[in-house]
Amino acid sequence: MNTEEPARSSEARTETGKTAPAAAQERVFVGTGLFWGLIVGVILAVAVIILAAQNTRTATISFLGWDFSTPLIVLILGSLLIGIVLDELFGLVYRRRRRRTLRDKDQLERLREEQ
Q1: Is 61 within 8 Å of 75 (Cβ atoms)?
Q2: Cα gap 38→42, rounded to integer Å
Q3: Which are the contacts of 13, defined by CB distance < 8 A and separation ≥ 6?
Q4: What is the pLDDT of residue 115?
Q5: How confident is the model at residue 22, as a pLDDT?
Q6: Above 70 in pLDDT, residue 29?
Q7: Lesser CB count within 10 Å: N end or C end of the chain?
Q8: What are φ and ψ of residue 11, in 5° steps?
Q9: What is the DSSP string of 10-54?
Q10: How far is residue 80's CA from residue 47's CA, in Å, rounded to a whole number?
Q11: Contact predicate 73/52, CB 8 Å
């Protein structure tokens, strides 16, 4: 005798016989990841301290007739910061365009449904 429970489908049958997606399951989040975020933050801080300790030489930068002398770590971290800011700006533009496209698509679908 088979005592196993039959496999449940992720779709349910409606009155018309068509299948409809089952209700979405509620997501449960345990913890906030604070511990792992703290660990990663400490590792990155130690890496930056080591980087700063090993790159104390002065670098001279010439730009449009100006000459700057700065420690190499300032140059490295400044370049990193500029890269992060530019990445966020380009990401912001991309997300706005994507949202606008999706919003226009939703409006178009609603108009088609009304007809």
Answers
A1: yes
A2: 6
A3: 19, 20
A4: 75
A5: 54
A6: no
A7: N
A8: -120, 150
A9: SEEE-TTS-EEEPPPPPP---S-SHHHHHHHHHHHHHHHHHHHHH
A10: 14
A11: yes
Pairing of β 11-13 and β 19-21:
antiparallel
C-alpha 80/C-alpha 52 separation (Å) is: 14
C-alpha span between 56 and 46 (Å, rounded): 16
Place of tokens 């990193």: 80
- pLDDT of res. 7: 46
Q: How many C-beta neighbours within 10 Å does residue 18 have? A: 9
One-letter amino acid of 79: S
Amino acid at 68: F
Average of per-residue pLDDT values in the chain:
77
